[in-house]
Write a structure and sequence with these properties.
Elements (H helix, E strand, L loop, with lengths): L2 H16 L7 H19 L2 E4 L11 E4 L5 E5 L2 E6 L4 E4 L11 E4 L5 E4 L12 E5 L4 E5 L10 E4 L5 E4 L2 E2 L3 E2 L2 E6 L4 E7 L8 E4 L5 E4 L7 E5 L4 E4 L11 E4 L5 E4 L2 E2 L2 E2 L3 E5 L4 E5 L10 E4 L5 E4 L7 E5 L4 E5 L9 E4 L5 E4 L3 E5 L1
Antiparallel strand pairs: 1-32, 2-3, 3-4, 4-5, 6-7, 7-8, 8-9, 10-11, 11-14, 12-13, 14-15, 16-17, 17-18, 18-19, 20-21, 21-24, 22-23, 24-25, 26-27, 27-28, 28-29, 30-31, 31-32
Helix pairs in contact: 1-2
Length: 357
């Protein structure tokens, strides 16, 4: 039941209780209804809360929602679990090796695949590890063919994981892509991208294909087909960018927002229609952003947070094509965002906060 319906039912109930009591109570009813409406709207308004602090403060971690509803955060050589029901953090088993800026993907088995990253040796760790929530332990699995950090990782309908692009020590931003098969624990080539993996963003389409966007110049949009294990170029985004976000909406369209263009950080946004292979301008954000988070809420709206001058947040409404700034936002710098089972969004950086729609 949405907020409008809940409020209407609440006020209708109040009116029924006083029906037939005569005109003498009209003023009282109106006053009470107005007061109740104000309090109810305030209670239903989006809210930000500070959460229990992590044991390890970091801005180069990776997070994944577990089947239990807990959130796994992996950074350095350690890992922590956040319990949204008790608002507490607890240590869990440490990774086998330290890594910053890896990817973290929950598999169909419930295990979490953490792949790649960087450490003091360089930005091209090839190894990958599996976290088992049942035992709180990590085990090595197959190593990637190309070590990378700052890459994308997408869970496919088959249960395999597609990893694309990213930063390497030897090649800079690599145009390679590969697949992880949980059944064998092995990686295989997933073809070559048309452009280097320069701070790209990936979104899985309803077709099961993956849209990959991002490049300051040249090819900036292409689609991976898991059936043929191949890439094809699609319509070019009118304004190339990197450090942006790509979010599949309930309509099937993909919202690409913010990022860096040749002209600097931008508030602009576009919608990609995979059925028509067409880009159309969306309303621009209120603030220019790069390297931010974007989370699709259960309502269909998109929460975008962080990496603006104010480290603020705003909501995109696909039905009205409008952005709304959210006041008093508590957005940690360099945060990751995780949609909880409760519908709230957990933001984790050096500090932690939670957004309630």
């Amino acid at each position: 039941m949405n907020k409008t319906v809940r409020l209407s039912v609440l006020l209708a109930g109040l009116g029924s209780m006083v029906a037939g009591c005569g005109e003498s109570v009209d003023a009282t009813v109106q006053s009470a209804s107005s007061s109740l409406s104000t309090r109810a709207e305030a209670a239903l308004a989006p809210q930000w809360t500070s959460n229990a602090p992590k044991n390890v403060r970091s801005t180069s971690h990776a997070s994944a929602l577990l089947s239990s509803g807990l959130v796994l955060t992996a950074v350095g050589g350690g890992a922590e679990l956040y319990n949204p029901y008790s608002d507490t953090w607890s240590a869990t088993g440490p990774m086998n090796e330290p890594r910053g800026l890896p990817s973290a993907t929950r598999l169909d088995s419930g295990q979490v695949l953490v792949a790649g990253g960087q450490n003091s040796v360089g930005p091209d760790i090839r190894t990958a590890e599996l976290y088992d929530p049942a035992t709180g332990t990590w085990t090595y699995t197959g190593s990637m063919q190309v070590g990378r950090s700052w890459h994308t990782a997408t869970l496919l309908d088959s249960g395999k994981v597609l990893v694309t692009g990213g930063l390497t020590r030897s090649m800079g931003f690599t145009p390679t892509a590969e697949l992880y098969d949980p059944a064998t624990g092995m990686w295989s080539s997933a073809g070559t991208l048309s452009s280097g993996g320069f701070f790209q963003a990936a979104a899985k389409l309803y077709s099961g294909e993956v849209l990959l966007t991002g490049s300051i110049s040249g090819v900036n949009a292409e689609v991976y087909n898991p059936t043929t294990n191949s890439w094809r170029q699609v319509a070019l985004m009118p304004r190339p960018r990197a450090f942006h976000t790509a979010t599949r909406l309930y309509s099937g369209k993909v919202l690409v927002a913010g990022g860096n263009t040749n002209e600097g950080t931008t508030p602009s946004a576009y919608l990609y229609d995979p059925f028509l292979d067409l880009w159309t301008p969306a309303a621009s954000m209120n603030q220019a952003r790069r390297d931010h988070t974007a989370t699709l809420l259960y309502s269909g709206k998109v929460l975008v947070a962080g990496r603006s001058a104010e480290e603020g947040a705003e909501l995109y409404d696909p039905e009205t094509n409008t952005w709304t700034l959210l006041g008093d936002a508590l957005v940690p710098p360099s945060a990751t965002a995780t949609l909880l089972h409760t519908g709230q969004v957990l933001l984790v950086g050096e500090t932690t906060s939670r957004f309630t729609p």
